[in-house]
Amino acid sequence: MSTAPSVDSLVDDVTQLVSQPDIFHKLEEAIEDPNMSLDSVANLLAGDPDLTLRLLGIANSCLFGFPAKVESLDRAITLIGTRQLRDIVLVTVVVRNLRQLNVELIDMDQFWRHSVATGVLARAIAVKRGESNVERFYALGLLHDIGKILLYLKLPEVMIAVNEQMDSEFSSQFQAERSALGFDHAELGGALLESWDLAETLHCVIASHHAPMADQDWASDASILHVADVIANAMNWDECGAKLVPPMESGSWDCLDLCESELPEIVERGHEQYKDAVQLMLN
Amino acid sequence: MPLQEIPEGAICQSDITDAKGNLIAGQGQPLTAVKLKALEKTGVPAATVAVEDGRTLSVAPSEVNSTLDRFMLNDTTQPPFPTLIALCESNDGVGG
Q1: pTM of the full predicted structure?
Q2: Residue A14: how many CA atoms within 13 Å on its side-chain side?
């Protein structure tokens, strides 16, 4: 009987297949450089025409709602701001890299629609709570389940058994993964992002999105992502949700300090942005 | 055996609980129409009942087919679930 692979060995395997978001690291260096100009940042991004087109599309989408059309990259950077730009570039590049993978056991369009739904809902919750840099929460939503892609890619037989267990025992996916492997897709996704030297505010929050109250340092951000994930599964827009809505961890809703009466507005705001965001991210 | 086919009055051979462990019907009790309705609404992971003619039948919801079925892993009486379920039901109506 073979032993279950470790998180580290899976991450090592996958980094051979999925390239690191190099342009993101170059952008971070440029932003951190005190001598950096907006022109130099725009020039760096302009070297990637596909990325440029996507960034202009995002700047002109209802995610931002700028009154006038944004036609140039330097104008987009000025309006969006370098901190939020960094997160938008990160998710755009990572999603582009991962969408090139051929993973047979997973409906990739459904997977990304769920990720987008979680992203816009996390962003809407963050806006409601008055968080700074709300794009970070959109990025968290987009990337929160990337560990699933790695599992379906590297361990298809285990994942077939996981799916069977979910159906027969009425369990959620992360619970079935923990039972089969001793870890879940959240931990694996967090470990991959950590291996790319991304910020703790990304990889620690994603690693704990199914146990948001476990680490008090990240409980607030992880609860926003966790609750957004549950709502996205429940709302099931375009049938992008799981068959069973995953359990919401005790305390995570209270941690958000929101009234239940504020939920319809959050869902409505998320839904308004969902279709636009799917179009931008997946086409 | 699909829940819909369980006859009213079937006797539970063991306790039947919902996904949160709340008792729906106790061992030795007959499954009344109200209890059968509760089973339909909450879904059960698995249960066994004996009907009056002595047969023993394993029962489980054959599929997840209602809004409430989809929430069986959560306590739907706790916030924010009452509002979330209402939103899901209206979402189904608009084809969201």
Answers
A1: 0.81
A2: 29
